[in-house]
Amino acid sequence: MSLTSRHLLGLHGVPKEDIVKILDSAVSFKEVLDRPIKKVPTLQGKTIVNLFFESSTRTRISFELAQRRLSADIVNFAASTSSLSKGETFKDTARNIEAMKIDMVVVRHQSAGAPHFLSRIVDANIINAGDGRHEHPTQALLDIFTLREKFETLEGLHICIVGDILHSRVALSNIYGLKAMGVNVSVCGPATMIPREIEKLGVDVYHHIDDVIPKVDALNVLRIQLERQEGGLFPSLREYHNYFGVTRDRLDRADKPITILHPGPINRDVELSADVADSEHSVILQQVLNGVAVRMAVLYLLSQSKP
What we know:
By secondary structure, the chain is α/β, with parallel strands linked by helices. It is built from eleven helices and nine strands.
């Protein structure tokens, strides 16, 4: 089994068949995580570099754990202690790493397009672990996997992504991936946090959470980046919570159970009330476990592709 591309740079244009392959493979790898010995020799002899130019906890740990579960050799790169701090270019850093005969690169970078640039200058498989405000494909894939696990089928579901859509790479990858799988997608947030003409991606736009909850099966609630408040994108955290916060009271008024996803970390009682985050509605901890299985699937499938 392999994917139609040698790289996972984003979900834009990725065919449904590839997404289904990843989801189906993740089911098998999740079974591995339930075994007493949580390791398989699938990538034994392969060397993977984790090239992180932005700080990360969940994504980095999830990728490292996935790589170790597949028996790969791992090299961790930290930009702050590398030759980049001495003036070396991103291109030269990448080529020097490739000269060490690595097989795959997992890259997170603050600049949109960095993984695409990397794919043109090195021969290794490239996996985008988040590039600027562009995409975060493995986060979207684990969200989609979690939804399929919950609802069994994705076709015809209505999912709303709530929060700072404008600055979110998670939102964009989810829109592309969910639409490819036949899901009805909406976005909800302050007008200052919704990109212009986002409707052209085939999504509906809402500006009040109470308008969307009665219509959806699940809410994917994004973290409010508190540093954005200094830019005046919304008046206050209290007002944001009043208009867009997902609370127990709001969910109880719905005529069916609403599933809650969140990529983490959560600002409790801002975008999501604490009692909802810990409730039966939440699949947030399942997302964390599923992230390892999905990343194992991506690593495995890309390793099967031809240069």
